[in-house]
Design a protein that fits this description.
Radius of gyration: 24 Å
Distance between the termini: 15 Å
CATH class of one domain: Mainly Beta
Largest sheet: 5 strands, mixed
CATH superfamily of one domain: Cupredoxins -  blue copper proteins
Number of helices: 6
Order of helices and strands: HEHEEHEEEEEHEEEHEEEEH
């Protein structure tokens, strides 16, 4: 009887540990420091944020916003695609707004104020029970590519901070021979090629090269991490900074310059570690651990 009681205690401990793991949750603050608002650059900002997260049943989304100016509605996929807020699944108007992810599948959220959804205040996520990294397919390249940094908005101090340029770079493949084109207003902006530490600290007096005339065309000639900021006062601190990762080129093609008479330069250092768009999760390992513990406990009954 005592031996049976011991087995039951061990099994109870294992089950309790497994239930504790299952009940564990992660708090996701939507948009990070940016919060929930009409984002600069459109919906890609929240897409980038969502792609950097791992969502599991039991996790909680926290939407931080300004009461009266913003709200958040959970809607269907069809309503999300059409920005239709007339019949939401749920609506919260007070910040912080918390949504518990109670089942696997897709979740859709929008702002219902004015044209906020159409301007990019929209979030789509996918909740999985056992998350794991999904490798991105390698794009097919036919030669060097010219990238206009920030697209039509150009190179400036972005509202919302450095997330704007991180969003612009997200999903793009940069290779040796590609060219970055920085468009800005002469006399009000510049482009500084800097090291990783200078980028991180927004140091003004330790630049590799500075471009003061627009458009500034910079051809990527080395692999690794490349960092760009501005030397103007507080511009870097306010988010005028760009970090990209350059891979080797599989196409033997000469560098392509974005315009005649424009300057070009090598940025970054060879052999630098790659930038990562996803963070590893320890949940799978924990699940295996607790499952193994449960199996060991059950083995006492045989």
């Amino acid at each position: 009887m005592a031996r049976l009681g011991l087995r039951l205690v061990i099994l109870a401990v294992a089950i309790a540990a497994l239930l504790q793991f299952t009940a564990a949750k992660t708090i996701h603050e939507v948009g990070g420091a940016l919060g929930w608002l009409v984002p600069p650059g459109g919906p890609v900002v929240y897409q980038v944020w969502a792609d950097s997260q791992t969502f599991v049943v039991g996790d909680v989304l926290v939407f931080n916003f300004s009461d009266g100016n913003q709200d958040v509605a959970r809607v269907t996929k069809e309503a999300f695609n059409s920005c239709n807020s007339s019949d939401p699944i749920s609506l919260q108007t007070k910040s912080p707004a918390n949504f518990t992810l109670d089942k696997i599948g897709e979740y859709y959220f929008i702002g219902t104020k004015n044209d906020h959804c159409k301007l990019g205040q929209m979030l789509a996520i996918n909740v999985t029970e056992y998350p794991g990294p999904t490798p991105s397919p390698s794009p097919t390249r036919s030669g060097p590519v010219t990238y206009i940094v920030g697209e039509e908005l150009g190179w400036f101090v972005p509202p919302g901070g450095s997330l704007f340029y991180a969003s612009w770079a997200y999903g793009k493949t940069f290779e040796v021979g590609d060219t970055l084109v920085f468009n800005f207003i002469n006399g009000t902006q510049d482009v500084a090629v800097v090291s990783k530490s200078v980028y991180a600290n927004c140091t003004k007096n330790k630049t590799i090269e500075v471009y003061t005339t627009s458009p500034a065309n910079i051809t990527l000639k080395t692999t690794g991490e490349h960092f760009f900021t501005s030397t103007y006062s507080t511009h870097c601190e306010l988010g005028q900074k760009l970090a990209i990762n350059v891979t080797h080129s599989s196409i033997a093609a000469p560098p392509h310059h974005g315009g005649s008479g424009s300057s070009s330069s090598t940025a970054g250092a060879p052999g630098a570690p790659p930038l990562s768009n996803s963070a590893p999760s320890s949940r799978i390992g924990s699940a295996y651990f607790f499952s193994s513990l449960l199996i060991v406990a059950m083995a006492f009954f045989h």
